[in-house]
Amino acid sequence: MNHDQFKKCIGQTLRLEPPAIGPDGRPSDDDWEVVGADEARKAATLRNHTRGGEVIVGFDHVKNYDSDAARGDKCGFLNMLWQLRIGRDGAITARPIPARAAAAPGPEFHPLIVNDGEAERHFTWSDRDGAVALLPEGEARQLFGTFIGVCDALRTETNREPQFDAAKDIRHEIVWELTPDHLSKHKLLGGMGGKAATSVLVLTNNKAQQVQERVVNTTPPEIEAVDTDYPSRSGLQDRLTAEGFKLHWVREEMVGRRRGEGWEVVVVADDGRRVTFKVPPGMPSVDPSALILMKRRM
Questions:
Q1: pTM higher than 0.85, yes or no?
Q2: Does 213 fall in a domain?
Q3: Is residue 101 domain-resident?
Q4: Quick check: is 105 in a domain?
C-alpha cells in the first residue's frame, strides 16, 4: 500500500488478515487503527484498540485494503505481508511471512466421513491411513455431544470398540480428525458424557458393542437468509453471550479457516428445525461475499 491508501484508513476500525498472534500463541482477531502515515519513512503506525499498544509497519508490509461492509462504512481489513505478534508484556512486533515453497504432492487419505448434523468431519487412524503419522499435529479438539455419533460410526465401520484413554497413558490406536484440506491432524477429547474432558479417543482391538438404534438428527441444518443486525435484533446475541460465546460474521470462503481457529457455525433449534444464518452475497450490496454467523467460547 502507498501513503495515500494508508491516509484513507486513518479513523477506520480495521482487522488484520492474517490476524495477529496473541500472547497465548493463538490468532487474535483484534481491532486496529492506522493513526499515522509517514511518507518520508514509508511507514505507518498501527494502534491496537482491543488491548492497547502500537507498532510501526512499512508501506510494503501491507498488501492491500478490503472493506468490511458487514461491520460498517468505517470498517475494513488490512491484508498483511508481515505477521504481527503481541507479547505477554503487550509489546507488538512484526516479522515477514515466509514465502510458501511450491507444495509437493501430499499423501492421499481415505478418511471415514461423518456428518455430525452441522458439517462433514474426516476421521482416520494409522491402520486405515499410515501416512497420518507424517502430518503435523494441531491442538486437540473437544467432541462434546458429538461423541455418540462418532463412536457409533467407528463401531459400524471397523467392528472395533472405541474408548477414551488417559492422555498420559494412551495404549490403543488414536483416532485423528483431519482438517478439510488433510494437511494436519487433531486428537479428539471426551469421555465425560459430552462435557469438556482430557481423555483421548482411541480404537481398541475389542469387538464393537452393538450399535443402538438412536433417533439422531444428522440432516444438515437449513440456511436462513438474514441481515447483519439479526443476532442483536432477535436476542440471539444476548443469549449466546450469556452462554459464554462470542459471535462474528465470517466470509463464507473463510469458514474453514475459522473452524481451525476454534470457531463453529451457529446452529439453533427453531420449531423442530435446525437453522444456520447467512447474509447472502450482495446484501449489503457493497460486499460480494456471503457472510456466515459463527461463534467461539470467550
A1: no
A2: no
A3: no
A4: no
User: Distance between CA 184 and CA 260 in Å, rounded?
Assistant: 10
Q: Are residues 86 and 118 in the same domain?
A: no
Identify whether residues 269 and 228 lie together within a single domain.
yes
Q: Measuring CA to CA, how many Å separate 8 from each of 13, 41, 74, 114, 163? A: 12, 18, 10, 47, 57
Domain annotation covers residue 214:
no
Give pLDDT tens digits for 266-284. Answer: 988 777 678 899 988 765 5
Residues 10 and 76 in one domain: yes
Q: Which residues contact 46 (CB under 8 A, 6 or more apart)?
A: 14, 32, 33, 34, 35, 54, 55, 56, 57, 84
294: left (phi over 0), alpha (psi -120 to 50) or beta: beta
The SS3 call for residue 88 is: coil
| Number of folded domains that form the chain | 3
pLDDT per position as a tens digit, 79-113 = 999 999 999 888 999 999 887 655 566 788 999 99
Residue-range definition of the domain harbouring residue 66: 3-96
**What is the model's pLDDT at position 286?**
45
Question: Taking Cα atoms as reference points, which of 105, 61, 59 lies closest to residue 81?
Answer: 61
Torsion angle, alpha carbons of 255, 225, 275, 116, to 10: -30
The percentage of residues in the chain with a pLDDT greater than 70, rounded to a whole number, is 92
**Strand pairing partners for 15?**
77
